[in-house]
Specification:
single chain, alpha/beta, Rossmann fold, 5-stranded mixed sheet, 4-stranded parallel sheet, globular, binds iron/sulfur cluster
Length: 331
C-alpha cells in the first residue's frame, strides 16, 4: 500500500479527499491516488482516514465496501459502469438456495461480491485473508461465494470442505490464464519463479512456486532470490512491481489478464470525481446493515497473505524448475 503527496492540477482541491486505487487500475490512476493497494488494504485505509470524501478508483464492490464501512463519509465511484463481472454472476436468490440446501453451514463471501450478497452472508473475506477467515470459523464445511478457484485454494490450505456457489463462478481475467500457456512460458523461462493469484485455476496454481494475494505478491517479488519472475495476475500490477523490484525481470503470465472493468476507470473520470464529488455511492440501508456486519467480522480477523502453498501438493512435470526459494516456494 502506498500513501504520499500526489500531483494535482491548477485549481484542484483535494485536501479533504482520499483517493483510493486498486492495484489493477491504470498506471496513471495509481500515480494520482493517495493510496494504492488490494481490496483489504483499501478497506482498511478507508476506515482509518479522517477525510470526509473517499474517491474509490476500482470496481463497484470496492466503492460499496467503502460506503458500507464509512457511513459518515461521502464515497464517490468515478465510473459506476465499472462492475466486477464475477460479482455480477451471483444473485442473492442463488446464494439463499445454497443456504437452504446446506442448513447450518456458514456462508463466506469474497468481497468481490455485491453488497446484497454480503448482506446475507456470515462473514466476508479477501484473497489476502480468505484462509485465515475460514480457519477462524472452526467448522468442517463452509459455503464460499462467488469464486470457485479461491474456494479450491482455501479448501486445499485449510482442509475445510468448501461448497462453491455458484458452482462455476470465477474471475474471467484470472481464468484466462491456461495451464498450457503457463507451461510454455515456464519452458521459455525455466529458472523463473512463478507466482499467481488464487483466482487462477487450480491447474495453474499447481504450477506456481507462490500463490498469494496482490499484496502478498508485491512483498514476495522484493524478497525472492529469483532474478526472473512470471506474474500470474492482472498485468496492471506490473507497474507497481517494477518500481518495487527494479532489478527483477518481470514476465506477465498472459497479456489476456487485463480486467476490462478496472480499465474503465480512467484518470479523467477520477479527476472529475475529485472535483465534483460525484457520482456518490448509495447503498440501501437494510443491505448496508447486513453487509457491514459481515465486513466488520472479516476485519476482526488477522490478515495472512503470505501463507505458503501446500507442501503436500504433487509437483507437475513441466521441464527444469528452480530450487526452492524460501517462503511460499514450491517444496
Ligand atoms: S479482475 Fe476479476 S474479480 Fe477483479 S474486478 Fe475484474 S472481473 Fe472482478
Amino acid at each position: 500500500m502506498t500513501s504520499s503527496a500526489r500531483p494535482t492540477t491548477p485549481g484542484e482541491i483535494r485536501e479533504d479527499v482520499l483517493v483510493l486505487a486498486h492495484n489493477y487500475v491504470r498506471r496513471e490512476v495509481q500515480d494520482y491516488a493517495d493510496v494504492v493497494g488490494d481490496s483489504l488494504e483499501l478497506a482498511q485505509a478507508a476506515v482509518e482516514s479522517e477525510k470526509p470524501y473517499l474517491v474509490v478508483a476500482g470496481v463497484d464492490f470496492m466503492a460499496e465496501t467503502a460506503a458500507i464501512l464509512n457511513p459518515g463519509k461521502c464515497v464517490v465511484h468515478p465510473e459506476p459502469l465499472a462492475r466486477c463481472s464475477m460479482a455480477a454472476r451471483l444473485s442473492v436468490a442463488e446464494l439463499e438456495r445454497a443456504r437452504a440446501r446446506h442448513p447450518g453451514v456458514p456462508v463466506v463471501a469474497y468481497v468481490n461480491s455485491s453488497a446484497a450478497v454480503e448482506a446475507v452472508s456470515d462473514i466476508c473475506c479477501t484473497s489476502a485473508n480468505a484462509v485465515r477467515v475460514v480457519e477462524s470459523l472452526d467448522v468442517p464445511r463452509v459455503i464460499f461465494a462467488p469464486d470457485r478457484n479461491l474456494a479450491a485454494y482455501v479448501a486445499a490450505q485449510t482442509g475445510v470442505e468448501v461448497i462453491s456457489v455458484p458452482a462455476f463462478g470465477c474471475c474471467p481475467t484470472h481464468q484466462a490464464l491456461s495451464k498450457s500457456d503457463l507451461e510454455d512460458l515456464i519452458c521459455i523461462h525455466p529458472k523463473a519463479e512463478v507466482m499467481v493469484h488464487p483466482e487462477t485455476s487450480p491447474a495453474v496454481q499447481a504450477l506456481a512456486h507462490f500463490v498469494g494475494s496482490t499484496s502478498a505478491m508485491l512483498r514476495r517479488v522484493r524478497e525472492t532470490d529469483a532474478t526472473t519472475v512470471i506474474v500470474g495476475t492482472d498485468i496492471s500490477i506490473l507497474y507497481r512491481m517494477r518500481r518495487l523490484a527494479p532489478d527483477k525481470v518481470l514476465v506477465p503470465a498472459s497479456h489476456l489478464m487485463a480486467c476490462p472493468d478496472m480499465r474503465m476507470v480512467t484518470l479523467d473520470l477520477v479527476r472529475k470525481a475529485v472535483q465534483t464529488r460525484e457520482p456518490v455511492v448509495r447503498v440501501d440501508p437494510a443491505v448496508a446493515n447486513g453487509a457491514h456486519r459481515a465486513l466488520e467480522r472479516m476485519l476482526s480477523v488477522d490478515r495472512d497473505g503470505m501463507r505458503p502453498t501446500s507442501p503436500q501438493r504433487d509437483l507437475p512435470s513441466v521441464g527444469p524448475l528452480p530450487a526452492p526459494l524460501g517462503t511460499g516456494a514450491r517444496p
